Amino acid sequence: MNKIIIATAMLFGNFAFAQIPNFEMRMRNVEQKTYQLEQQNMQLQRRVWDLEQYIYHNPPPPTDTMYVCAFEHTSSFRVYMGKSRSKIEAEAIAKNACVSSTVSPQYCALYECSAEDVAGHTCRITHTVNKQDYLGRGKSLTEAKSSARNTCAASTARPQFCDVETLFCD
Q1: Cα–Cα separations (whole angstroms), residue 115 to 49, 66, 136, 139
Q2: How many structural domains compose the chain?
Q3: What is the mean pLDDT of residues 30-51?
């Protein structure tokens, strides 16, 4: 019986020792991969830190963007504009201009908002009854559109025929 136990132990021992090199090789691979990942992580952390330092010492210049928003009074067909460096503030200025100039503020509706461009814009709108064209210019597309619509509305007794579908801008 002792011989069977010794033989089993030797067989099991040889099997266990045969598995250890494979296990050790796997462990070495895992350790190498872990080391590589740690190195890559340190490189990324270093790059993020460098970028943060660069941004801290070289802040981006402030934007000079001006926003123009327009509210339309859908009953009188007039357009009211507001300008600001903040889109929300430009919208509020336009809305307040519309609401304060009428006895029926429920007809004030946001028309559009856009940022000013250096080149500016020109828009043309056609009155569908008298077939006349009216121009509007502005630093932003919204301002040019609103100017054209207001010019048309102010020049005629029937501003409802200043057809938005004929509004073209460059």
Answers
A1: 34, 6, 17, 8
A2: 1
A3: 92
